[in-house]
Amino acid sequence: MFRKLPPPTKFTITDKYKLLLGVIAIVLGAVILWRAVEIAMSVPALMVSIAFIGFGSYRLWLGYTRLKQLRAKR
Amino acid sequence: MTTANSGDSRGKEELRRDVTVWGSYTWGYADVGADIYAALGLVIAAAEGLAPMAFALAGVIYILIGLGYTELSSTYPVAGGGHYFALRGLGDFWGFVAGAALLLDYTIDIALFAVASAGYVNFFLPAVFGINPGHIIVALGPLHDIKIVWLLETMVLIFSLMFINIRGVRHSSRLNEILGAMDLILETTVVMLGFILAWHPALLASQWHAALHSLPLSKFMYGSSLAIISFVGLESISQAAQETRRPATIIPRTSIALIFTVFIFAVGFSTVGLGILPWQQFSANISDPVAQIAKSIPYLGFIAGPFTAVLGATILLISANTGVMGASRLTLSMSQLHLVTGWLDKIHPRFHTPVRTIIIFSAMGALEALLAFLTPSAMDTLGNMYAFGATLGYMIVFVSLIVLRYRDPYSPRPYKMPVNVKIKSGGNTVDFPLMGILGFIGVSFILFEVIFTHAIGRIAGPAWVILCLIYYLFWRRRNHLPLFGSVKHNWEKEQIDVLTSAEEYDLVEEYKNALAQRDKKVKHDVSKTAPTDKIHDNR
Q: Range of B537's domain?
């Protein structure tokens, strides 16, 4: 889908930020889902929780891929 | 980033390419990300408890529009945006229609975001001066509901922007980066803390179910068509493309990240907002909805509310400024392509800025704001017009995207909209974009909603386009240019020049190879048919 970027040379602060954001998004999604299931379920709550979990997982997967590339390069 | 300057409209003015990956992302975010500050209240007031669904529906269509813009902007990294794509795909006439729709959006952008920015300034007035500007109303003849203080604030903001731009603002990439980053952090914080500390799923569910059973379909349609304005500003992707080094590599990544971030925030804000406050409160505070959410967060609301209001006012003002700058870039591009007079791009001898464009389009923005304040809700009226201009422009862009796949299969496409079907056409195999068709249908649906439900938009929007068309036909006739046909352009040379200036040397090679193969094939076909011609000649 995208043109390939050159493999990373180091694990930057941006990578750490992306990983942190991924973890936060997954936790937030889980909290929303849990509270909605516990108290009152609605379509928007379900939608937003799944969106956050999906977004966080994607961020973590991106970070993991970069780490893997970095290790392979080393 | 530099402002578009043009002394001679026929001359090619180049915009400097110095925008980084982060700069490209925050440039878009400072523009598109600001929309939610203005749109949230309008959409919740219309769609009530179904606002998250309205945002999601408009958001899905916006994602398709965004993917289309990503493909076109990375293929043709020039600042003209939608009107340039339309002109390349469909010719001068449609290029002008798209340009007219986008010009409408830029002038509304100036008016709407100045009104919204003043709305966030008004967040402080009750606490500081003990007055609520929304309650200071004057009557003027048959009009009884003119919010005079808000109107005056808006005029001050618009004319200040005009003055600053005439003097020559260096709307720096660094400023965008700082504001974009601050906005991103603030929106993330408000959404996160809102969900964790203040969100009541029961309140959201009750509003959702109430609206599901009682909200008329026409009100939901109105809300979802207004929701599209929270995603407007995709033109900034193509503007960033012209000033980004290696746009083919950078633009697809940054614009797709931008598209999904804005989508998540739009749906997230409406969901968290309706779980904190009843929709009626948003309806009563249409001018500063995000600050209302921030204010309601326990423990931090006393600081988060005012901070959000300050940032909202600033970022909305920057967005209004994008309208002033966008209009001058667009008219520069349109005059270079023989669609409007070059008179508009005359440069001020002292300030070196396109003073005529700045004055004319800022004054139009001010006039639109003034007229909007004569209606019951200024923001609602401007939102109506904004939605019309955006959807019309996007519809033409989708048609251009599909046509360009056929007419210009040789230009390298670093990013293609996903889900394509291979179709043979004129000896070439073309990737037919199914998602482009879906996007076209989606935008057409929103335009239908606008025409069906927006009492002002359905009259004023087409009236603007018709007025612009009258000017276009008059001007083209006076200059002995084809009225409905196109002026000849050397697109191949231009494409090579654009890619070379973007330092996309591998794409230049790819493009030249594709053209060489095409020429070889044409020669081969000619040589195959030549003997037959000779026989005919001899006979």
A: 504-539
Position B16 in a domain = no
Q: How many CB atoms lie within 10 A of CB B312?
A: 28
Of B201, B264, B270, the CB nearest to A42: B201
pTM above the 0.95 mark?
no
Residue-level pLDDT at B538:
41
> Which residue(s) pair with B431 in the sheet?
B422
Please calculate the CA angle A46-B453-B31 and round it to the nearest 5 degrees.
60
For residue B192, list chain A residues with Cβ-Cβ distance below 8 A: 24, 28
- Distance between B287 CA and the closest CA of chain A, angstroms: 24
Query: How many angstroms separate the CA of residue B201 from the nearest CA in chain A?
Result: 5
% of chain B with per-residue pLDDT over 70: 91
CB atoms within 10 A of CB B225: 30
**Do B524 and B446 belong to one domain?**
no
Query: CB distance from A45 to chain B under 8 Å?
Result: yes
Residues of A in contact with B196 (CB under 8 A): 28, 31
A72 in B contact zone (CB under 8 Å): no
Is position B405 within any domain?
Answer: no
Interface test with B, best of A27, A42, A57 (most B CBs within 10 A): A42
Task: Decide if B192 is inside a domain.
Answer: yes
Query: Are A45 and B275 in contact (CB < 8 Å)?
Result: yes
pLDDT in tens, B402-442: 999 999 999 999 899 999 999 987 777 889 999 999 999 99
B402 lies in some domain: no
Give the minimum alpha-carbon distance from B120 to chain A in angstroms, rounded to a whole number: 27
Q: From the CA of B414, how many Å to the nearest CA of chain A? A: 6
Judge whether residue B443 has pLDDT over 50. Answer: yes
Tell whether the model's pLDDT for residue B195 goes beyond 90.
yes
Q: Chain A interface, mutation test: which of B271, B272, B279, B499, most A Cβ atoms within 10 Å?
A: B271
Query: CA nearest B67 in A: which residue?
Result: A1
What are the backbone angles phi and psi of residue A5, rounded to the nearest 5°? -90, 155
Q: What is the pLDDT of residues B267-279, one digit of tens each?
A: 999 999 999 999 9
Asked if residues B83 and B334 have their Cβ atoms less than 8 Å apart, the reply is: yes
Looking at the predicted complex, does its ipTM rise above 0.95?
no
Q: Give the pLDDT of residue B86.
A: 95
Per-residue b/e over B169-199, b at no fewer than 16 CB within 10 Å? bebebeebbebbebbbebbbbbbbbbbeebb
pLDDT at residue B94 tops 70: yes
Domain ranges of chain A: 13-68
Q: If you average pLDDT over every residue of chain B, what do you get? A: 86
Q: What is the CATH number of the domain that holds B79?
A: 1.20.1740.10
Short-list B124, B493, B404, B107, CA closest to B287: B124
Domain total in chain B: 2
Instruction: Assess whether B445 and B538 both reside in one domain.
Output: no
